[in-house]
Amino acid sequence: xxxxxxxxxxxxxxxxxxxxxxxxxxxxxxxxxxxxxxxxxxxxxxxxxxxxxxxxxxxxxxxxxxxxxxxxxxxxxxxxxxxxxxxxxxxxxxxxxxxxxxxxxxxxxxxxxxxxxxxxxxxxxxxxxxxxxxxxxxxxxxxxxxxxxxxxxxxxxxxxxxxxxxxxxxxxxxxxxxxxxxxxxxxxxxxxxxxxxxxxxxxxxxxxxxxxxxxxxxxxxxxxxxxxxxxxxxxxxxxxxxxxxxxxxxxxxxxxxxxxxxxxxxxxxxxxxxxxxxxxxxxxxxxxxxxxxxxxxxxxxxxxxxxxxxxxxxxxxxxxxxxxxxxxxxxxxxxxxxx
Amino acid sequence: xxxxxxxxxxxxxxxxxxxxxxxxxxxxxxxxxxxxxxxxxxxxxxxxxxxxxxxxxxxxxxxxxxxxxxxxxxxxxxxxxxxxxxxxxxxxxxxxxxxxxxxxxxxxxxxxxxxxxxxxxxxxxxxxxxxxxxxxxxxxxxxxxxxxxxx
Amino acid sequence: xxxxxxxxxxxxxxxxxxxxxxxxxxxxxxxxxxxxxxxxxxxxxxxxxxxxxxxxxxxxxxxxxxxxxxxxxxxxxxxxxxxxxxxxxxxxxxxxxxxxxxxxxxxxxxxxxxxxxxxx
Lengths: 339, 151, 120
Hints:
- The structure holds 3 protein chains of 3 kinds.
- Chain A has 2 domains: 5-71, Chemotaxis Receptor Methyltransferase Cher, domain 1 (Orthogonal Bundle), CATH 1.10.155; 82-270, Vaccinia Virus protein VP39 (Rossmann fold), CATH 3.40.50.
- Chain A is α/β, with parallel strands linked by helices.
- Chain A has helices at 5-19, 28-41, 47-56, 60-71, 82-98, 116-127, 146-154, 159-162, 168-174, 186-189, 222-234, 295-298; strands at 104-109, 136-143, 156-158, 175-178, 181-184, 192-196, 208-213, 236-244, 257-262, 265-270, 311-313.
- In chain A, helix 5 (82-98) crosses helix 6.
- The mean pLDDT of chain B is 89.
- In chain B, strands 1, 2, 3, 4, 5, 6 and 7 form a 7-stranded antiparallel sheet that branches.
- Chain B has one domain: Chemotaxis protein chec (3-Layer(aba) Sandwich).
- Chain B is of the alpha+beta class.
- Chain C has one domain (2-114): Response regulator (Rossmann fold, 3-Layer(aba) Sandwich).
- Chain C has a 5-stranded parallel sheet, with helices on both faces.
- In chain C, helix 2 (30-38) runs parallel beside helix 3 (57-66).
């Protein structure tokens, strides 16, 4: 029995208010599966009854439990997908053009947790047709939790974890079986370095071309968010790229960043970073290495999100001294195919 | 020495199957148990090829009914023989398929068979077994190997 | 289209897919699924088990990929076969994606998003 749409709307409004996280339509099964154990614990028959109770009583504790159950950090490979599509199809090509002198790209995964994010980045780089063997991609993965870091360093994931977000072609290319688990192969493992780091304290790192700071700012208050963003910006190259979590933004916190849209992803760059160098239209699907036996089968699908896109900067803030942009759609501009 | 899954491996696999389809709560499946006696249901899949043997999933009648009810989203009282056979068969299939991937390959996995009672395969022996408890009921997962299939 | 010899699995996958907004057609093996296609069914995506009687999942994938008229059907295997070599075989035969059983509803939704069949 599935949850009614009014019950679903109630839960998704609650979560949006309390955690600024959006649970879009089509995710009814997610609400069902996350809240059913909670309902059972409360001695209730089903999720609809649980929601009815939430609606009719002022049970703060239950409210909090529901929000927590819905927002538990569910990490997966290529989480939210769009930032990784943007990485592969715009960011890495741009950097390949700009870093010709050093042939080196530094990427920082700043709240790497169990490791799916930095390994996803490494896999994207390994599969990228422009990143040939004369390039060095260094992925730095940090987290405040040392236990998590140790786990991440193992590079071992369960069958259930590799089922999430990871294209099957990448699974067979970049992982090998290890008893009941799957383990990243040496080429992936060697691209990532793990280090403990507390974003809340001053830190000193090499300058980064790309930073992934996703779904960690939500745990800080506004003042701390601003401090962290400032510290992050100080270790970024002036033409670097910052990816935040889906519902996060620098707006109102640090105005040293400028917001861009690449496909369906939002990326932030230090102000004055200049244009993003998109490669010529080529029809090369993102994320595939050539010469791999499974490439032919997977190349049959068009890449989700459309290729190629225009890169659209959002409107400059009122009173800024930047040159005027040509008229653009609003901040939530949709992608515009170049063809 | 070829790797044969350990009892822990069997438990991890069973746990993954159980938490995906039967129980939101990983703590619902507990290690240890007394093994089923009396009313039992056994689901079985056979392997042939590089490894020849079987994987069996054995539980009590009430547990089988509960599993079917959970899988089919029904009330346990509405569950019939058809649902029990399909449910236990599919659970044995999923556990067996995952165990197969840890054994020397390639081997072919048979379609599942389900019986009321205990199953024995002539010429085969249990090489690994794990006893678990689900909702207070015993659950036993065992890996059998055909004795004649040596190297 | 959900193709699996287990009625429990057809129920579970059917429920997930309906929850995501799809209409669902079922078949208990590859041969019956082909028959459905031949009589005009044109699913956007087929979830295919591997081990089934009469015609197994790999044979089904091979049969579908041979036909021009079925080119646009996305094929996703949902199976217990979890050896690396089996996954490679399936992808090489033309399956677009692969889910290992056991799976969670999120895993299915993730894969559908990857395939562009479902907006994330």
